[in-house]
Amino acid sequence: MSATLRTNFAGIEMDSPFILASAPPTTNFDQIARAFEAGWGGAVLKTAQYSPRFIKRNVNPRIRAVKRNGKVEAFTNFEIGSPKTIEEFVKGIRWLKERFPEKVVISSLIHSDELHESEWKELTKAFDQAGADAFELNLSCSHGQAESGGGAAIGANDVMIEKVVGWVTSTTSKPVMPKLTALTADLPSKGLAAKRGGARALTAINTISSLPGIDLETMVPFNSVDGKSAFQGLSGRPLKPIALRSVAQLSMATGLPISATGGIYDWHDCAEFIAVGATTLQVCSAVMESGYGIVKKCPKGL
Predict the structure, then answer these.
(1) Which letter, b or e, does each residue of 87-102 get, where b requires 16 or more Cβ atoms within 10 Å of its Cβ?
(2) How far is residue 271 from each of residues 189, 240, 259, measured CA to CA in Å?
(3) Under DSSP, is residue 247 helix (H, G, I), strand (E, B) or coil?
């Protein structure tokens, strides 16, 4: 009998455990289609904002490669949610599921400029009806919405985690998986709060707040936009030890399936995350660095 990487994640059958994380590689539905053709088992769509009232626009430049001796070690970004409307997401989800019914499409949700129960439920219902297989709740972004009480601000508060997760789980029968932040003093309690809210899985971790460097000519941090900058999310190789610890803690504390993300570049990284409790493996920075084709190397090694 030959080995298989078929996976059951929170009740969802997947032909492989490899998932594109919610990030630049999942911004475009055509890009996701090419990734599915390359062998990815699923994709978490770029995070949706509530479009009828408010959408924040991204700026340029917003992503920076962090290098040492000419080699890319990590990326930083202050990219925020997708500017796509609810209608564009609905159309894109339907198109992907019609074309790739065996692949897993996961919607990513975050609050916009204000936290409203009705908005979380409206997005959930719309994407559920469009065919999304699961919902990842961005309760961990260190930039973008954190300053208005969302993202990592929710993910640091047990009461708010349970409340927001409950809003979504009461609206869909499909798996809900909060994406939690490592930037908290008691991560296991956050996972347990999500479980009380009805979460059937967890994602860990998101980027970590950082400052990539200072332009010593202008004394403005990178990336500079109109002479100003901001703290940014760090992704890539440096996150792996933190992500491994986080996945291990959450797995032991909650018993829930974990979708691991943070510093996954090759099959060895995948095996380590599986060893500490991960069921699926989300990748972003490695794809940004080397392309969708890297997914072909990981199954062979595993």
Answers:
(1) eebbebbebbbeebee
(2) 26, 12, 13
(3) helix
Q: Which residue has the tokens 């917003």?
A: 62
Angle between helix axes 187-196 and 158-169 (nearest 10 degrees) is: 30
Query: Model pTM?
Result: 0.93
At 184, list the tokens: 């908290």
Contact 155, 190 (CB under 8 A): yes
Q: What is the spatial distance between Cα 20 and Cα 292, in angstroms, rounded to a whole number?
A: 9
SS3 284: coil
Which are the catalytic amino acids?
141
> In whole angstroms, what is the distance from residue 71 CA to residue 77 CA?
18
Separation CA 12–CA 234 (nearest Å)? 30
Beta-strand ranges (E) seen in 191-248 are 202-204, 208-210, 214-215, 220-221, 232-236
Closest CA to 212 of 75, 103, 48, 114: 75
Bridge partners of 166, per DSSP, are: none
Q: Which of 45-54, 101-110, 207-216 is the least confident region?
A: 45-54
Region 49-53: what's the mean pLDDT? 74
3-state helix, strand, coil split of the chain in percent (to 5) is 35, 25, 40
Helices (H) and strands (E) in the chain, counts: 10, 16
Please check whether residue 135 is in contact with residue 127, taking contact to mean a CB–CB distance below 8 angstroms.
yes
pLDDT score of 208 more than 50: yes
Q: Are 222 and 214 in contact (CB under 8 A)?
A: yes
What is the distance between the alpha carbons of residues 250 and 229, in angstroms, rounded to a whole number? Answer: 34
d(CA 49, CA 132): 16
Of 133, 160, 122, the C-alpha closest to 10 is 133
